[in-house]
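Predict structure. Input: Death domain-containing protein, 216 residues.
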Amino acid sequence: MLLKGLTSNELEIEPSDKHLVRLGGQIGIKLFEEFFISLGMNKKQWESIEYTYAGHSSEGIMSMALTQWRKTKLSKLGMPTLKDLTHALRAVNLDSHLICQVFRENTTLFEIEDINLQAIPSDQHLKELSNQIGNCPLQLGIELGLSFTEVDQSLFSFPKDLSGLVEDILKKWKRNSKVKTIHSLMLALERVNAGGIRYLHDLSKKLADANHANIT
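Output follows.
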């Protein structure tokens, strides 16, 4: 049975980092172990991931588990697909249409047209913002376009410093991204429900006031 809105060819594609993070945010932690095993993994692998990423959010742990599944299947010369994820969801009686959710951009921020939101935040702004964001550094990093490897390096460097970890991820985004605006940052924060959007919105107003003062 095909999912409404997705073709058979689309279901055969390899899930991206964002797909895996977004799916991880859709599945409850209590059902995830069974789902993970339905993907061909085992309990020992799940427990190892839980131990390695203890202290991070359940969504972050599930996301790392999904990327481990993808890596494991590729190492065995298999091809991880969205169809695999769909079948595993059905195996544990979860709605397979959760796969469709990973493609959707549910936001009202696209409707906000403010030239000041196109400004690039300074490093000091990112430092201040890092104190406003909750325990979702992995998901945020992926939504900002970083790879799992880049985020994992930050996790290793800041094992017990959440604000430092988030700041490091934000600076990597600013350094590497082609689109490093306040608005693009707000979109990522909204997607992972991280907090900090109000801070950025207020920042854009302060920048507008400063620009107006300089002109006058």
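Residues 156 and 185 are 23 Å apart (CA to CA).
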